[in-house]
Amino acid sequence: MLVVYVSPFLRKDVYLFLDRLSRIEGVRVGLISTLEADRLPPQVGASISGYWRVSDLLDPAELVWAARGLSQRFGPIHRMFTEYELIQMSVAQARAELDIAGMSPSTLLNFRDKGVMKDRLAEAGVPCALHRRVETTEDAREFAAQVGYPLIVKPVAGVGAREIHQCDNEEEFEEVLESDPPSQNNPLQLEEFVQGEEHSLDTISVNGKAVWHSITRYLPSPLEVLRNPWMQWRIITPREIDVPEYDDIRRVGEQALSALGMESNISHLEWFRRPDGRVAVGEVGARPPGSRIFTALNWANDYDMYDAWIRLMTLNEFIPPSERKYAVGTAFLRGMGTGRVVDVHGLDSILREFGSILVETDLPYVGQVRANAHDGEGYLMVRHRETSVVEHAISEIVSRVRVEIG
After folding, report:
1. pLDDT at 161 over 60
2. pLDDT at 267
3. Would you say 203 and 297 are in contact if contact means Cβ atoms under 8 Å apart?
4. How far apart, in whole angstroms, are the C-alpha atoms of residue 168 and residue 161?
5. Percent of the chain, pLDDT > 70?
6. Which whole-number Å values give the CA distances from 334 to 14, 109, 141, 262, in the listed order?
7. In terms of domains, do 183 and 222 share one?
8. Which structural domain range is residue 164 located in?
9. Between 105-112 and 247-260, two packed helices, what is the crossing angle to 10 degrees?
10. Under a CB-based contact definition with an 8 Å cutoff, are residues 82 and 7 in contact?
């Protein structure tokens, strides 16, 4: 059977997804991307049966054309999907046109359009931030006057924290409206700024039923890190995820996924613990988590999550890990300023001290261009059976390692 994978960025995670897909008995892998065929990485070429290049992955008509071309060569298409959030809608529209099983465009809209998402969650009684989709500056100012500051402004179909603005006062809000005015063709999502500890709830659902989950905590929030370049970012996936402390978000998470129409997939739900203890849902993606969280789930469970997700999307089956064996933490190494890395301080002593619990690294190197993202120029990932040991290690790493930019 032919399974078509669609992705614009052929990076390490995609290599692993394609590799696992190629190992399923009876599957032939078709890939659609924008790269010239002779520029495909060797790791990709070894996993696929056929390739079709398109110029625009956001155009469903191009995806339909490419999928039909692959089908003519390799037979009927069994599944067609992507891990990349920005093209999920065009892939869903192509699936619908080709009558391929998978989440419909109307259901996927609940996950991709932030305004529709928050409306569905509110209608179902899911606790989340006050919000409004606006298409005029007048509506935007009216909402700001109602909710007050700080205020969050984001595109309705954005991805990640880089497209999100936190406006702490009217002057900052007006600057955003001037640089990116809302309109019918460019609606904006305005939201109450929820204060508290930020986490994610990553859930695997089969036929709409949540069958497995994990919790990750952000230290501090990605938006706060982007606004403050001097901050160093850590995330921790604790070993203890079934404790009473998380009973409320597990319940709210299942309620949110039901309201949005989750079928068979992994979901990435970002949520907050308010200072008074209540939870609030930020947003939900129907995709594997980023920021190395998906890799951390491998290490935490001694389990191949890449294979698990691919089999879920291809065969609609999932066998949960037998137990949660470890806590995992990732310390991201972020330099300040503009330019390139000129030195990395304190790394050698960290590698000596914590080498026994390091499981994955991506080390900054001299000459590397500074990244304009919250996950910085590199990272160190550690794991241990005791969550407190992991917390201490990632705290020490971000305190003692300094990436010098010049």
Report:
1. no
2. 97
3. no
4. 16
5. 98
6. 24, 34, 35, 35
7. no
8. 130-192
9. 140
10. yes
